[in-house]
């Protein structure tokens, strides 16, 4: 609209000038001197007015372009005085300045954000001008890895450590390359890569280095901590029911010794209890020996075992401690002759984990109940299901429960269910969970 108004006003001025010139020519032709003088003055005024009208717009545009040329976006053009068309023009200039300042502010914020991120990483990064050697940017990690103070030009490194300079700055590493560098007190291994990029007429080189030794030592330390956490968790899971069963056997023996006439010692129960403790101890010993290489196991100690026998072992081992917590536990098999080709010790470990989780879910539940069921599906898969009517698992964490070291418990280590999944994968099976918060969960082992 401002553009059209300007064109319209300019057109009116040109039209008036044309009319005035024609009138001047007519009066001169007729010899009306007085009229000619008046009209001549009018023509001169119209020329001056049109010139000023056009000039002030071009002056305003010239001022704005000069400000853009020198990147002076802080200039403010007055929007409340002067001709209306110029005020419209100034409003547009100010809007452009505001937009550019907003863009610059966002770019500066992103630059600071990126700079802070690069400063926080433990990977050394430097960019410098290939011709002058001036450092464009580098983070503290780069100087720390090279055991040097911060520098503004790479010639500083050349003067102090020529060999290091040649290895880092003069040699090109297009692909990530592992090299050893000698520092003051030791030799360390680093991973290095670089690239060259162009900015206008200047060429820059970007170098990225990482201290492999420190990273490996840190990862190894964390791995050992996690391994110890896993081992402790699984050992305690097995020791707790063994200890409970041993206490029960010791109590029965003590009563029989103190009251031999009133109490009849059930040798079959004692024998079964000791046999269960021995089997679980053997399984625990095997687990302790094989866990560290669990992900690499290719040959399981498979044996044909009846599901009823597996359930009897688990019932004898876990039943007393679960019932002592006022939780009813049931074992049921759809077909008594159902058999599995499994590593019994590892599958027992899976069931122990699932039962302990079920007990934990039912600890605040009235009429708490756990069921362990075995059946065969129509496609011949054998399925063992562990039901509980406990607290259930929230839907927002359900998909993460098999992630190693993920836990929603304040005292959990987050490795029980991930270990169960790994054991099932080794058996070419799978573990499935369905849960409704507040109603309970069911874990299915599909063989």
TrEMBL record:
Keywords carried by this UniProt record: Kinase, Membrane, Phosphoprotein, Transferase, Transmembrane, Transmembrane helix
Pfam families in alphabetical order: HATPase_c
SUPFAM superfamilies: ATPase domain of HSP90 chaperone/DNA topoisomerase II/histidine kinase
Enzyme Commission number(s) of this protein: 2.7.13.3
Domain Histidine kinase: start-end pairs: 230-447
Keyword Cytoplasm recorded: no
Domain of life: Bacteria
Catalytic activity field: ATP + protein L-histidine = ADP + protein N-phospho-L-histidine
Gene3D superfamilies, per database record: 1.10.287.130, Histidine kinase-like ATPase, C-terminal domain
Residues passing through the membrane, by range: 7-29, 35-54
Statement: the UniProt record of this protein carries the keyword Lipid metabolism: no
Alphabetized GO MF terms: phosphorelay sensor kinase activity
Stored InterPro entries: HATPase_C_sf (IPR036890), HATPase_dom (IPR003594), His_kinase_dom (IPR005467), Sig_transdc_His_kin-like_C (IPR004358)
The protein's name: histidine kinase
């Amino acid at each position: 609209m401002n553009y059209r108004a300007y064109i319209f006003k300019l057109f009116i001025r040109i039209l008036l000038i044309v009319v005035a010139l024609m009138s001047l020519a007519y009066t001169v032709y007729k010899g009306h001197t007085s009229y000619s003088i008046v009209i001549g003055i009018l023509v001169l005024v119209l020329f001056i007015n049109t010139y000023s009208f056009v000039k002030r717009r071009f002056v305003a545009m010239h001022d704005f372009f000069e400000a853009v040329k020198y990147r002076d976006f802080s200039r403010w053009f007055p929007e409340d005085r002067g001709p209306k068309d110029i005020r419209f023009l100034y409003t547009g200039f100010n809007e452009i300045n505001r937009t550019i300042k907003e863009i610059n502010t966002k770019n500066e914020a992103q630059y600071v954000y990126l700079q802070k991120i690069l400063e926080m990483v433990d990977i050394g990064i430097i960019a410098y001008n290939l011709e002058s050697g001036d450092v464009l940017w580098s983070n503290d990690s780069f100087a720390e890895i090279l055991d040097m103070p911060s520098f503004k030009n790479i010639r500083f490194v050349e003067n102090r450590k020529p060999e290091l300079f040649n290895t880092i700055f003069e040699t090109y590493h297009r692909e990530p390359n592992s090299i050893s560098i000698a520092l003051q007190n030791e030799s360390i291994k680093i991973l290095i890569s670089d690239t060259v990029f162009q900015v206008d007429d200047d060429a820059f080189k970007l170098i990225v280095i990482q201290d492999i030794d420190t990273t490996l030592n840190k990862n190894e330390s964390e791995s050992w901590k996690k391994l110890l956490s896993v081992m402790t968790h699984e050992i305690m899971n097995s020791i707790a029911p063994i200890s409970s069963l041993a206490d029960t056997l010791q109590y029965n023996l003590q009563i029989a010794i103190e009251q031999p006439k009133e109490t009849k010692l059930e040798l079959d129960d004692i024998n079964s209890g000791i046999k269960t403790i021995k089997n679980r101890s053997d399984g625990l010993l095997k687990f302790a020996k094989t866990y560290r290489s669990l992900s690499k196991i290719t040959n399981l100690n498979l044996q044909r075992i009846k599901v009823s026998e597996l359930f009897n072992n688990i019932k004898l081992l876990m039943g007393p401690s679960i019932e002592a917590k006022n939780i009813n536990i049931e074992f049921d098999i759809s077909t008594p002759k159902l058999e599995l080709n499994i590593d019994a010790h590892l599958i027992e470990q899976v069931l122990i984990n699932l039962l302990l989780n079920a007990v934990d879910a039912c600890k605040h539940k009235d009429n708490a109940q756990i069921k362990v069921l075995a059946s065969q599906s129509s496609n011949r898969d054998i399925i063992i299901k562990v039901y509980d009517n406990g607290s259930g698992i929230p839907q927002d964490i359900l998909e993460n429960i098999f992630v190693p070291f993920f836990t929603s418990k304040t005292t959990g280590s987050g490795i029980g269910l991930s270990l169960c999944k790994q054991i099932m994968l080794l058996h070419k099976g799978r573990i499935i969970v369905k849960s409704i918060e507040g109603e309970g969960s069911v874990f299915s082992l599909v063989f």
